[in-house]
Amino acid sequence: MQRLADLAATLPGVDHASFGFTEQGTPSLREALVTLRQGEFSDILLLPLMLPVEPSFTAWLTKSLRRWQVEDDLPWPHVRIAHGLAESPLLPALMAELVAGGDAASPVPPLEKLTPEGSLVPAQKRRVLVCQGGPCNAAGADLVWGHLRNQQERLKLRVTGDGTMTAKSTCLGPCNLAPVLQVFPEGTYYGGVTEAAIDRIITEHLLGGVAVEDFAYQPTGRKQVLRDGPATGGGEQAR
Q: Residue 228 has what pLDDT?
């Protein structure tokens, strides 16, 4: 990624280039943007270097950018999002060049019979599932997943406390509470999850053993909508 950033820095009209990840990886996109903001740049262009770019990508990234700006007390520069690689008219030429160079590619070696390797059954007692259903993806679940995985690595959650394993999941059910995750063994549902919510869930629930009621939703048998946030005192709205 640094090589791509160095290449982008040589392009006309580019004063500085850096990279960030929307999923697992450091720096995260938010961390990269905060660093750029501190550099007093007046205009930032986000260049998505991924294939494919899902139709909802720009929508959920825009929502997340707005949320970050609201959560931050300092002013932000003008931020724009460029088209993805798949929309570039240069993509066919690039693919043709790669195909033309295929003769120099190393052949895949034949499969050798290997001695089966055993696997350890995980000792971790906690599991965190992050919903990847349509509504959750549209609400920025990829960013939530990336922050959780980065914090899992930074804080060594697999071997800290009861030990925590994390995984992506298909739809977890309460779609209107997106983005949603669920913590086991309690089965606690969390809705409207942000990076700040992830940090509290890690500290208070995964390591402290106490559910974070500001973001938790109980199976009441009634339809629920997202609360406004911790400032509301955690009161429930139902339909």
A: 77
How far, in whole angstroms, is CA 58 from its chain's centroid?
14
Whether this prediction's pTM lies above 0.90 is answered by: no
> Where does the chain hold its CATH 3.40.30.10 domain(s)?
126-221
Whether the predicted pLDDT of 50 surpasses 90: no
- C-alpha dihedral sign at 196, 202, 204, 209: positive
pLDDT averaged over every residue in the chain: 87
Q: Are 131 and 178 in contact (CB under 8 A)?
A: yes
Q: Which superfamily does 126-221 belong to?
A: Glutaredoxin (3.40.30.10)
Read off the tokens for 221. Answer: 């048998």
The rounded distance, in Å, linking the Cα atoms of 180 and 177 is: 6
d(CA 123, CA 179) in angstroms, rounded, equals 28
Axis-axis angle for helices 141-154, 57-71 (nearest 10): 60
Confidence of residue 53 (pLDDT cuts 50, 70, 90): confident
